[in-house]
Structure formats: structure tokens, C-alpha cells
Amino acid sequence: MPEAPELDAAAAFLRERGTGRAVTGVEVGDINVLKTPTPVADLVGRRLEQVRRRGKFLQLDFEGLWLVVHLARAGWLSWAEPAPAKPVRMGRGPVSLRVRLEPDAALVLTEAGTRKSAAAYLTPDPDGLPQVAGLGPEAGELDRDRLAAVLAGTTSRVKTVLTDQGVLAGMGNGWSDEVLHRARLSPFATANRLAPEAVTALHQAIAATYAAAAEAMDGVAPDKLKATKKSLYRVHARTGLPCPVCGTDIAEVAFAEKSLQYCPTCQTGGRRLNDRRMDRLLK
């Protein structure tokens, strides 16, 4: 699932390429992607004025009518210039939504697989959407004391805190693995039991991880961001490969349809984590 660093990079790219361009057409490939009753045709003729991110949502302002997009687990954005000549066919192929912009460009939302969960909303009030209004503060914007207060208020695992969008917004499974590895913390550590120095390490790890991602993703086209993201991973999705810090094989805990990765030496004192303790983790 796209997370804050790559969505910030996508927003910056779209601001640079798309600001000031008017919508010339909107094509829907999956009717289920549309979550609000406002007709997509209402976008036509409106110019893109700003692009921003809130949590894992991209918010695009077309002269007061906002297109808010959540890419879910398998969705992604691409920028096409020139735009494809062939129109999108409903129910055929991976394209869920294509927004054509003058003179000959398109913003394309695709979603892989058969389980479609991506969402697009049209609204005059992007922060008023219940899905957005319920988000916690941005994980990458908290100072150390505010992060400490968040952690002190919950008995959840630290992995859960980092990925619960109602507590901290923007971070998901991938970057939370990276942050915890950089901070040398177990994903199973109880949030309100973290020592002050561990809280400091976590805060510094969030800042350093986001900064490194921002630098690597600067100017990268949206459809290339997934590959860039994967190239930055040191533990996530690297089960069985050596930890770049200590050389220990990266371990995994599987739960539901997801998994987390960690280094037993760097993060858990050599102990391997038990899958059965994951029942309270990410939804």
C-alpha cells in the first residue's frame, strides 16, 4: 500500500506537471472506485490548482471540487503524456479511473488483482470526508514530546501504533518495519512501556527514514515510485536476506494477509517473535 513518502513524491510530481491544466475528460473503468454521488463529468473544464496529501489520501483541487484518492493495497497512479488514445472500457483491464488534462496528458489510477479496494471521492470539503476526518496526526510531523504523549496513551504494540491511521496517519506496514529497524525496536514492544531513550530513537528513526525516502524519490514519476520504494527497504519484504547492519537473516511474522519483517539481532536481542502474538495487530 502506498504510504506517506511515496504519496508526497507523487503529489510533488503532479503539482509540477499538472497545476494549471484543465480537465478535458474523465473515464471510469471500475464504477466501484467512485464513492460519492457527484458526477465525474463535473470535473471537466476545471483546472488543477493544488495537490496535497493527508494520511494515505491524495487530495487534488480542481477549482473547489476536490478529487480525493485512496490507493488501498494494490492501487497506483501513473502520469501519461501523451495520453493514451484508446478510451477506457468499463470492467476491462486494470484502469479504474483516468482523468484527461489539456493539452494531451492523463492521470491514471490503476488497481491490480481481482479485489478492488481503491477509492475516489468528489467533494468540496476534502478534510470533511469521514475517512479523512478520522485520521490521527501525521506520523512524520510530530515532535518528540507529542510522539511520547501518543505512545504513553496506549498499551498497543508499537507496530500497531505506527500503522493505526486513527492514531498516526501516513505510515503503513512497509515503512513501519523500516522505522523500527532503524530505531532498533521490537515491533512487539508495548508503546507505553518504551523507555525515554527508545522514544527518542523512534522519533529520530521516523525523521531519518522519511528524509531518506524523500531524497530518493524526488522527481521520480508516480509509476516508478514503487520500484524506488522497494530499493530503499533494508528489512521489509527481505525475509531470509542478511540484515545490512549485522548480517543476521531477516525474520518474518505472518498475520492475516500481511507480514512484518525484522532483524532478531538488531531489534529483539536474538529472540524470534511468535506469530500468535499478532492477533491484535494491524487490521
UniProtKB/TrEMBL annotation:
Q: Which residues form the FPG-type domain?
A: 234-268
What is the required cofactor set for this protein? Zn(2+)
Signal peptide extent: none
What InterPro entries does this protein map onto?
A: FPG_cat, FPG_N, H2TH_FPG, Ribosomal_uS13-like_H2TH, Znf_DNA_glyclase/AP_lyase, Znf_FPG/IleRS
Reaction catalysis annotation: Hydrolysis of DNA containing ring-opened 7-methylguanine residues, releasing 2,6-diamino-4-hydroxy-5-(N-methyl)formamidopyrimidine
Which positions fall inside the Formamidopyrimidine-DNA glycosylase catalytic domain? 2-118
User: Per its UniProt entry, which superkingdom is the organism in?
Assistant: Bacteria
Report if keyword DNA repair is assigned: yes
Supply the SUPFAM superfamilies for this chain.
Glucocorticoid receptor-like (DNA-binding domain) (SSF57716), N-terminal domain of MutM-like DNA repair proteins (SSF81624), S13-like H2TH domain (SSF46946)
Which keywords does this chain's UniProt record carry? Answer: DNA damage, DNA repair, DNA-binding, Glycosidase, Hydrolase, Lyase, Metal-binding, Multifunctional enzyme, Zinc, Zinc-finger
| BP GO terms, sorted | base-excision repair
The family database entries (Gene3D superfamilies) matched by this protein are listed as: 1.10.8.50, MutM-like, N-terminal (3.20.190.10)
The GO terms this record gives for MF are: 8-oxo-7,8-dihydroguanine DNA N-glycosylase activity; damaged DNA binding; DNA-(apurinic or apyrimidinic site) endonuclease activity; lyase activity; zinc ion binding
Q: According to its UniProt record, which protein family does this protein belong to? A: Belongs to the FPG family.
Protein name, as recorded? Formamidopyrimidine-DNA glycosylase
Q: Which organism is it from?
A: Raineyella antarctica
